[in-house]
Design a protein that fits this description.
D-Maltodextrin-Binding Protein, domain 2; 2 domains; disordered N terminus; membrane
């Protein structure tokens, strides 16, 4: 945790530049900074950084106290990390529960009003808009250490425009959780699943063979395994939308055919619903991610395997992502916040996160730890990770998520809708939204 004088001097400069940038107009005549004097804030930040530069180690601001946003499944882990950070540095840490998917949007409104957390977690597909809006501070002081310690994919995903912003936390994709009492061996194809459902399903008793949430993230295999994609050039070119290309109509036709083994409306299938059913043994197969491993360890005899092959013979192609800690550009304690983000993303804490929640580390040394290499669940995610597409982080990804979710739900719930017309309309909606920005 030692940062020598050159690093602290770099911080001093970056703080001045960051705070000065926050005071500039956002192009609409409105200042991104709070109404209190930007000059005095800049001066105070420079003074704090200069004082820290006199020390051999980076020192948090006097009176610093931090707020961290965390998703429900990560709260207890983060409370433990916060307590250890306070023990070592004397900076109290408050953990507030905010759903993972809501943290980015909350930051866009609460950041400028100075009511957002100092540190939050974002999946890498959300950082494009956050960076464009000036909501995140770069990971500058700990950049070299972060690049050396974590897998390259995680570092790249936590960057935007060649600038590193994130402090990698975990890598992830989703896979097939299977109840070993019902499936001694995991099914390898959708045909096996459909056949099993013929004798297992009993909607009156709330017994179902398989469930997944009807959002673009989990439903993406029905597109990607049939030749479609979100954006071109490995999800970096928002001018090339591929959600209606290839044989995606065929993919959606197969999706619709599964209504016979999952006779529920999309809106009735939630994380809480399928988690409870899986715990009760009423759901045989659950499409979920490593963050849910801990929820089942004490209640279900289960394993994790790659997603099933499709009738066209193709592997299921999932979305994969990287979650990292980010520092709010409007934090009142940029030194302490940087220190905490770095502390929370250490090898030791990534392993702690794995032990408490099942999150797969991005740290290279942690990945070689026997706890990871010998874990019976992680191998299933790693196998699926090999058949995944990294999520896009370009501005416009949010429009694609919204349109995808609406389209999946409407085509599943209403069998009368024409698939090709719906897909073309979805792509046009995304294009119109991009053009309006």
């Amino acid at each position: 945790m030692v940062v020598k004088k050159w690093g602290t001097l770099l911080l001093s400069l970056s703080l001045v530049l960051a705070i000065a940038a926050c005071g500039k107009s956002n192009g609409n005549g409105a200042s991104n900074a709070p109404s209190s004097g930007a000059a005095s804030t800049e001066s105070a930040a420079s003074e704090t950084a200069s004082q820290a530069a006199e020390e051999e180690e980076l020192v948090p601001e006097a009176g610093a106290k931090l707020v961290v946003w965390e998703a429900q499944e990560q709260v207890e882990y983060m409370k433990a990390v916060g307590a250890e950070f306070e023990k070592q540095y004397g900076v109290p840490v408050t953990v507030e529960q905010v759903a993972g998917g809501d943290q980015g949007s909350r930051l866009s409104t609460d950041g400028p009003s100075k009511t957002a957390a100092d540190i939050l977690t974002l999946p890498h597909d959300q950082i494009g808009l956050a960076v464009k809006a000036g909501l995140l501070l770069p990971n500058d002081v700990y950049e070299e250490e972060t690049r050396n310690d974590n897998v390259e994919t995680a570092v790249t995903a936590s960057s935007q425009g060649g600038v590193l912003y994130g402090y990698p936390k975990s890598v992830e994709t989703y896979a097939l959780f299977y109840n070993k009492d019902l499936f001694p061996e995991p099914p390898k194809t959708w045909d096996e699943i459909i056949k099993f459902a013929e004798t297992f399903n009993d909607p009156a008793q709330k017994k179902y063979t398989i469930m997944w949430e009807f959002v673009g993230y989990y439903s993406y295999p029905f597109i990607a395994s049939y030749g479609g994609y979100m954006f071109g050039d490995n999800n970096t070119n928002a001018n090339d939308i591929g959600l209606n290309k290839g044989d995606t109509v065929q993919g959606f036709e197969f999706l619709r055919s599964l209504k016979k083994i999952l006779p529920m409306n999309a809106g009735d299938i939630s994380y809480d619903v399928k988690t409870q059913l899986f715990k009760e043994g009423k759901l045989a197969l659950n499409v979920d991610g490593p963050w849910s491993v801990a929820a089942f360890k004490d209640s279900v005899n289960f394993g994790v395997a790659p997603l099933p092959k499709f009738p066209n013979g193709k592997d299921s192609i999932s979305f994969s992502g990287v979650k990292s800690y980010y520092v709010n550009a409007y934090t009142s304690y940029p030194v302490a916040a940087r220190m905490f983000a770095h502390f929370a993303s250490s090898k030791e804490n990534q392993l702690k996160n794995f032990e408490m929640t099942g999150a797969i580390p991005a740290n290279k040394e942690a990945g070689e730890d026997p706890k990871i290499k010998d874990d019976p669940f992680v191998s299933g995610f790693f196998q699926q990770f090999a058949n995944s597409h990294p999520m896009s982080s370009v501005p416009g990804t949010d429009l694609a998520w919204e349109a995808l979710k609406a389209t999946f739900i409407s085509l599943w719930d209403d069998p009368k809708l024409d698939i090709k017309t719906s897909l073309d309309k979805m792509v046009q909606t995304i294009q119109d939204g991009l053009a309006a920005r």
